[in-house]
Each structure stands twice: as C-alpha cells, then as structure tokens.
Amino acid sequence: MRSASARVALLCACGLLAAGAAAGAEGERWYVWSLRGKPSGYFHVSRGNSRVATAPIVLTHQFVVSYRGKRMSLTMKTLCKADGRFTPVRIESRGEGDDELGTYEAKIDWGANGEGVLKTELRGRKKELRLPKGTVTGFALFEVVAGLPFRKGVVFEFHSLEASELNLKRDHTIAYLGTETLDVRGKQATLHKFEQKGRGITPVHYWVDDQHRLVRVVMDERKEFLLGSKALAAEAIEQAK
C-alpha cells in the first residue's frame, strides 16, 4: 500500500487520534477503522500507570491497517502528566510496513513557563522541536475529548502534536455542538457531538455517550473509527485482506 489512500489515512489518523473512553476491560478500547464505509483496520488503546512520578499515566496505542494483503501498523507508548491534558513527557514509537511510519524514542522537557523541547532521532537524523504551552498529542486527544463537559460555549484550545511524524499544528479548538441520534451497530443512540477545527485539517467530529465513552470519530467525512471489541477488530482486518 505504498501510496494508497489507506496509508495516507493511517498517517493522518495517527496524527489526530488517541485513546477514547473505556469499552470492554477497564482501560482498554477497540475501535474498528473504516475507509469509505469499508472496515479496513483497527485502533487499540490501553491506559495504565507508570512508575515515573512526573508522568504517572501511560497510554499505549496500536493502529493496524490492511490493504490488498499488506499490513501496516504503528504502535506508540506515551508517558503523560496527570494534568488533564495528558501532557507527554516521553514517547516511544514503532512503525512497521511503511517507511513513513516513524520509529523513534523522544524525551520532552517542559519549562516553568509551560513550553517544552522535544528531542529525538528520526530516520537517522537528530530532531529538536519546540512545543508551545498547551500542546496535546493526537493520541492523547481522545482522552481529553471524552472528559469535556456537555455544555455549549465551552471551547478547548490547544496545539496538536502529530506523534507519527512529529509535526506541530497550532491553534486548534474543540467545541461542543449538542446531541445527535445515530445508528450505532443497528441500535439508535443519542450521543454528544464535538467538533475539532484548526490549521492543517478539515473538521473532525467526535461522538461521546452519557458515560463519557468516545463512541465514534469521523475525519474527512470518509474515515471512521467506531467503538467495538477485539473480535470486531480481528474481523475488520480479516475482511480487508
């Protein structure tokens, strides 16, 4: 899938997507990923505790896509602060199946002014990236969305760090739009809808249930993540072969 739309979608989604709210076992979520309505992969999320006092939360994500018999994956482990934004302190990324899926280890030092410096080596080159105050990684963003209040007028402002390629997109917002009734796996569900806007992206929409579980995400009107199970995730990969 060297230049196929599925690879592009994987890179884009890795830049925007992160952990949702719980489904199945506590701290673990499975999302079925579909492109143009066809199940083509899955996104697996787990959340636990680290032994690092300054970064007590560890988020682990695996995004797997299959296209014409070729499988690609990105696995990422992020140590985060317990500050409501899940501010990253260390990121370990491993990409397989495509050269553009980054493999690296990064450390982020945050100053007293809230600004940070990320240092790593990516594809044989040293990389240093300055992060403004309010930076949120894409993979941590769904933790934030799931915890936002269901109240119009409340806007979450942030800068988005695309962890797969270590690109920074400034001046993003997420706002609550109200409720919407959707068909979710054959059942009607009234969900709370949020919208993300900002530089470098088309609007992204999120749907959260009353228990603050992230149920659905739609990007570019054709890339969907839908809360499911391990069995449904395996089925999606099998169907995509």
The portion of residues forming beta strands comes to over 45%
Total number of β-strand segments?
Answer: 15
Strand order of the largest sheet: 8-7-6-5-4-3-2-1-15-14-13-12-11-10-9
Provide mean pLDDT, rounded. Answer: 87
* N-C termini distance: 12 Å
What pattern of helices and strands is seen along the backbone? HEEEEEEEEEHEEEEEEH
Report the biggest beta sheet as strand number plus sense, adding barrel if it closes: 15 strands, mixed
Helix segment count?
Answer: 3
Structural class assignment: mainly beta
> How many domain modules?
1
Rg over C-alpha atoms, rounded to the nearest angstrom: 17 Å
The percentage helix is: 10-25%
What are the segments in which pLDDT stays under 50 over at least 5 consecutive residues?
1-26
What's the shape? globular
Write the layout of secondary structure elements.
Blueprint (H helix, E strand, L loop, with lengths): L4 H12 L11 E8 L2 E12 L7 E11 L2 E11 L7 E9 L7 E7 L5 E7 L2 E7 L3 E3 H9 L8 E8 L4 E18 L2 E11 L6 E5 L5 E6 L3 E5 L2 H11 L1
Parallel strand pairs: 9-10
Antiparallel strand pairs: 1-2, 1-15, 2-3, 3-4, 4-5, 5-6, 6-7, 7-8, 10-11, 11-12, 12-13, 13-14, 14-15
Written overview of the protein:
With 241 residues, this protein is mainly β. It has one domain (5-240). Helices cover 13% and strands 53% of the residues. The chain has three helices and 15 strands. It has a 15-stranded mixed beta sheet with strand order 8-7-6-5-4-3-2-1-15-14-13-12-11-10-9, sandwiched between helices. A hairpin with a 2-residue loop joins strand 3 and strand 4. The protein is globular. Residues 1-26 have low confidence and may be disordered.
